[in-house]
Design a protein that fits this description.
This is Peptidase. The protein is α+β, with helices and mostly antiparallel strands and about 325 residues long. The chain has eight helices and 22 strands.
């Protein structure tokens, strides 16, 4: 997410624009979702990617939000309606006990559990710049699927390169390895015009040392077409002040629906740049660190500090996940 001075117009101009546009909505009808778009990564590029990201280079990577202007993009257009179908949940690997404690507006995660392994930093080249996001390993048929934000895989028509996922990252360390993407994917709406309502991305990573990703770190569950205004937890690796990207940070509380220019979930949260793509969970169990991923960190309005927004996981997010897990 981005909170820089250039991210949004002045609040007065924003409110004027809001009066002139019709915000997107969660739509229970309409045509079936279009197919996601993807890029296949050559084996030679996959082999190169993991070697690119030394500890020093990972620490020095720029939070991708510092290279983008996502808040302004949200202001420029209201976006399409978000197709909504029947609710679907995919359980996490293992069991949950149901323990939770709310709220938290931002702080280091010290609860342990699976989330410390499944959540990680994402590193990639955006043009000639080293950049970082966050991501999450999820339960999948291929055992190799990572969910992140759309702008963490593609921006302004260009796919990011040298893309790796580092689950369990901390202090420059990659305790579970660096997993190079064999394929990156995003929604057709993000690919077409970077509609913030569909800022969801995915990656299929290659096996490492003969093992699949979720065999090593486990996989979180997912939830699609669920309710708004519910208790959720968000996680990520913010790397802009006051954070440095070296620790897993979380927020928790009751979400609300954005009433301005998207139909995203909103959450009181002080995470900064570098947290984009980190998972949002419903039914999160603080004891086991497991939950149902229902969104990702996406963007923030400059005039609304300490608030994070994440896209609604509707039919298009579900189709993206199903396509990725079949890869």
């Amino acid at each position: 997410m981005r909170r820089g001075a250039g991210a949004l117009m002045a609040v007065g101009a924003l409110l004027g624009l809001a009066l002139q546009t019709t915000p997107a909505s969660a739509d229970s009808g309409g045509a079936p979702p279009a197919s996601p778009v993807s890029q296949t990564v050559a084996e030679s590029a996959q082999a190169r990617a993991a070697g690119v990201w030394t500890a020093d280079r990972m620490r020095a990577a720029t939070p991708v939000e510092d290279l983008l202007d996502l808040g302004a993009r949200a202001v420029q257009r209201a976006g399409q309606a978000v197709p909504r179908g029947e609710e679907l949940t995919v359980p996490p690997l293992g069991s949950q006990d149901g323990a939770k404690a709310l709220p938290e507006a931002g702080g280091p995660w010290s609860g342990g559990g699976d989330v410390e392994k499944t959540t990680g930093r994402v590193f990639f080249k955006m043009g000639d710049r080293d950049a970082s996001c966050s991501g999450d390993a999820v339960t999948s048929d291929n055992g190799s699927t990572v969910i992140t934000a759309g702008h963490c895989v593609k921006y302004q028509g260009a796919w990011h390169t040298d893309w790796v996922f580092v689950p369990g990252y901390h202090d420059g360390e990659a305790p579970h390895g660096k997993w190079a993407a064999a394929e990156t994917l995003t929604t057709p709406q993000w690919e077409a015009d970077e509609d913030m309502n569909f800022d969801v991305g995915a990656a299929v990573v290659d096996p490492l040392d003969g093992k699949k990703l979720t065999d090593v770190v486990g996989g979180q569950g997912l939830s699609f077409n669920a309710d708004y205004n519910t208790e959720m937890y968000s996680f990520g690796f913010p790397a802009a002040d006051p954070y440095d990207g070296e620790k897993l940070i979380y927020c928790s509380g009751t979400t609300f629906q954005d009433v301005l220019l998207t139909k995203d979930h909103g959450l009181s949260c002080n995470m900064t740049g570098g947290s984009s793509g980190g998972p949002w969970f419903t039914e999160f169990d603080e004891k086991t660190g497991k939950g149902l991923q229902s969104s990702v960190n996406s963007f923030g309005y400059t005039f609304l500090p300490d608030t994070m927004f994440g896209p609604y996981f509707g039919e298009d997010a579900k189709t993206l996940y199903e396509t990725a897990q079949a890869g």
